[in-house]
Amino acid sequence: MRVYLNGSDDENNRPGVMQHRAIDELQERLALTLKAYISVKRSGPEKKLLFPKIMACLTEMRTMNEEHTKQVLQIQDIQPEMSPLLLEIVSKQC
């Protein structure tokens, strides 16, 4: 199930992450919890397809987030002196 969230089993796909094993274990527990929740709360034939659909959406959202981050970093490179509002929006500190 971890492969769904990571996109692959390769630790190099997230270069800034230091605790790969802890993240992998947490994602595995969350995926199993989601699967168990769906099996308890849902019924009918759509129940079997809901978990893979949700996992596919999560994978797509991760890809979209990576693309967004690349675009923000590119904007920062092109226009290093942004307005304070834009700096606040794209700030790495949350």
Automatic annotation (TrEMBL):
Which Gene3D superfamilies does this entry report, sorted A to Z?
Answer: Retinoid X Receptor
Which keywords does UniProt give here? DNA-binding, Metal-binding, Nucleus, Receptor, Transcription, Transcription regulation, Zinc, Zinc-finger
Which Gene Ontology BP annotations are present? cell differentiation; negative regulation of transcription by RNA polymerase II; positive regulation of transcription by RNA polymerase II
Residues in a coiled coil are none
Output the Gene Ontology terms for molecular function: nuclear receptor activity; RNA polymerase II cis-regulatory region sequence-specific DNA binding; zinc ion binding
Q: Could you tell me which residue ranges the NR LBD domain spans?
A: 1-94
- Please state what the protein is called: Nuclear receptor subfamily 1 group I member 2
